[in-house]
Task: structure prediction
Amino acid sequence: MPVTNRIADYAADMKAWRRHLHQHPELGFDTVETAAFVAARLREFGVDELHEGIAKNGLVAIIRGQGDGPTIGLRADMDALPIVEETGAAHASRTTGKMHACGHDGHTTMLLGAARYLAETRNFAGSVALIFQPAEEDGGGGQVMVAEGILERFNIAQVYALHTVPGLPLGHFFTNPGALMAADDTFHITIKGRGAHAAYPEEGIDPIPVAMQMVGAIYNLRSRVLAGLDNTVISVTQVHAGSADNIIPDTAFVGGTFRTLSPETRRKLAEMLPELVANCAASFGATAELAFIPGYPITYNNAEKTAFAVDIARRIAGHDNVDDAIPPEMGVEDFSYLLEQRPGAYLFLGQGDGPGLHHPKFDFNDEAAPIGASFFAQLVEAAQPAAR
Result:
């Protein structure tokens, strides 16, 4: 079963919706116009319930099917990125410095297409909860929606999401059971020494060699503390110190990130870093303050739900056009907060050749929208079949 015929009929409308959203990008939680546009479409479709103002500008729409049954959750992210668009497209962003460079305009459109079909046909049991989320790129809107109780409030039993990816064949699906994307944690270290004239270093405590030693020690965690097969990335991304050639500064700053695919490794690094920082600074007579900032958790696909989603993807794309064993990647995704609380799956959908995500020349391929909408719709109908 390829793209659902009725959803294919919506292709022109979906293209128009997507290009409108692309022209009006909004950042983070401030998705006021985007949410209003989504709400207007959902009311036109005749959803049974529309709940607005969740996580500031998020929405949850409920469509009831035939008879009693569980509720399945489908999620799309709505926010854009602070990038100056360079596509030159007629539908390019009208707001300088903001653009949909990650396809969230397309994700929102795919879920709207599925919403229209499901509200029209209602060929499923129970209910579907359509989750339109702000602040995926920055702010953890998924975490906020979970914290505000959407899963319990709407009795959501399982959750699914898609992300389109350029450079992968149009209409092909990619995922895996288990860890699909990494957790990210940030560290900020302020090293406190004692300033002095550069000609008389013995009168001070130079924080710069402390920072250099600390950077090496942090990188050694990967090569000498973790197992060789442990998929972890450690990146020191900031080192700042000093303001003049002849002054030893009082302080230095080191910052970076840990990307992990194992909860045990994540805990281990978080536990080891404070001692490493303190001991390294003390060995030079300096002190250091560490701020460890937990980020998005691991995007972990439930094996059973992933197998189910893969089966639906194969009905649409064909068996050979779905890869269910891709290696995990070290990027992050705040759908992980929903997957921590409910079983479900996250899949990538190829959108063909073109500039990569977060590139100023990226644009969503409108031909992917009916494919994603069909995936969502057929997923609901198969997960919660209506009585015959």
Q: What stands out?
A: The radius of gyration is 24 Å. The mean pLDDT is 97. The CA atoms of residues 76 and 132 lie 5 Å apart. The first strand starts at residue 49 and ends at 54.
